[in-house]
Design a protein that fits this description.
Elements (H helix, E strand, L loop, with lengths): L4 E2 L10 H8 L12 H14 L3 E5 L2 H12 L5 E5 L3 H4 L4 H6 L2 E5 L8 H7 L10 E7 L16 H13 L3 E5 L3 H8 L3 H5 L4 E5 L10 E5 L1 H14 L7 H13 L4 H15 L5 E2 L9 E6 L6 H10 L2 E2 L1 E4 L2 E5 L6 H15 L1
Parallel strand pairs: 1-11, 3-4, 3-5, 5-6, 6-7
Antiparallel strand pairs: 2-8, 7-8, 9-10, 10-13, 12-13
Bound molecules: pyridoxal-5'-phosphate.
The site of pyridoxal-5'-phosphate has 11 residues, from helix 3.
């Protein structure tokens, strides 16, 4: 079978041989009945990494966010997020479906909600208004596709936001699906970002290369409430230490190498920027995501993706005028070369 160069997402990675060996060697238990020792070890490791009291292992990043919502909110409450946040755009309305909360969205192209923005939109305490209880941020910030993606939210701005929210009794949740990319790109410790939010999620199955799994971390009482939400969402798993072992392996061996994915994304931008109809300034690429703006007389993002697929290169159109490229463990310079020469041929 012809090997594909897959830039659609960092979720496509296959577990390495060493990761599979770690999974096979894992000590297992029934996590629902009396606990799985490898899951416990992963939860403790991630709580420590993020500077939180406890963490909970869940099957997906979506469930990690949903557990946080369930633990922080009550039906009828309102949560505030950026318009293109994963929790707004890509979770199929789960916030309303699962928890009966209302979303208040703001258009913030760099992803950093500020106190001044919140000041303008937060509701007064009134029997007529929903109660604002939670502000959500995404680190790294994927973006809407209309500008750069994979942005790193600056620590100082996050600190300021969290302090402001705390004074007003609002919690902050950080969707940290790609938090470790932000950590590696900025040199800021995960716990320092963690200190800017009351709860933080972390995905193991994106750039970290594990096959399944995410965690949601926060204070003890939050995690206890989260356990009940996870149970109600059907996310409590049995001998899932086999998955937790992959996560522990990923945290041990696949964090520092994220820098290679970031460098590859910059080289990808260098090779596409300035091709007919494509704009992707390499300096705008901070992590493993290169968002390419496109305006071409013969191709749209969708038609270019279809033509690239015939040439063995998989890419996702992001909007009607942009494409998203994501680098990860299973692509390298040869894949970028293949992509660039296919784009040169197709765009003329
Ligand atoms: C920022 C962000 N949060 C959450 C998720 C959800 O992760 P999952 O696909 O594991 O549910 C994703 C998925 O790509 C994501 O990009």
């Amino acid at each position: 079978m012809r090997r594909l160069s897959d830039f659609r997402s960092d979720t496509v990675t296959q577990p390495t041989a060493a990761m599979k060996a770690a999974m096979l060697a894992a000590e297992l238990g029934d996590d629902v009945l009396d606990g799985d020792p490898t899951v416990r070890a992963l939860e403790q490791r991630v709580a420590q990494l993020l500077g939180k009291q406890a963490a909970l292992f869940v099957p997906s990043g979506t469930m990690a966010n949903q557990v946080a919502l369930g633990a922080w909110t009550r039906p009828g409450d309102e949560i505030v997020l950026e318009r293109s946040a994963h929790m707004v755009q890509w979770e199929a309305g789960a916030a309303g479906f699962n928890h009966g909360v209302q979303t208040l969205t703001l258009d913030v192209p760099d992803g950093v909600l500020t106190p001044a923005m919140l000041e303008r939109v937060l509701r007064p305490a009134s029997l007529h208004c929903p109660k604002d209880v939670l502000v959500c941020v995404e680190q790294s910030f994927m973006g809407s596709g209309e500008g750069p993606g994979g942005l790193v939210l600056p620590l100082e701005r996050l600190r300021e936001l969290h302090a402001w929210c705390r004074e007003r009794g609002l919690h902050v949740h950080m969707d940290g699906a790609r938090l470790m990319n932000a950590v590696v790109a900025s040199g800021v410790a995960a716990a320092d970002y963690g200190a800017c939010a009351d709860s933080v999620s972390l995905c193991l199955s994106k750039g970290l290369g594990a096959p399944v799994g995410s965690l949601i971390a926060g204070p003890f009482e939050f995690v206890e409430r989260g356990k009940l939400v996870r149970k109600r969402l059907g996310g409590w798993m049995r001998q899932c230490g086999i998955l937790a072992a992959a996560g522990l392996h990923a945290l041990e061996h696949h964090v520092a190498r994220l820098e290679q994915d970031h460098a590859l994304a910059r080289r990808l931008a260098e090779s596409l920027h300035g091709l007919p109809g494509l704009v992707c300034p390499p300096a705008s690429v901070r992590t493993n995501i290169a968002m390419v703006q496109m305006r071409h007389p013969r191709h749209t993002p969708a038609s270019l993706c279809a033509a690239l697929k015939e040439r063995g290169v998989l890419v996702l159109p992001m909007t009607a005028s942009s494409l998203r490229f994501v680098t990860h463990m299973d692509v390298g310079d040869a894949d970028v070369g293949r992509l660039a020469s296919a784009c040169r041929e197709l765009l003329g």
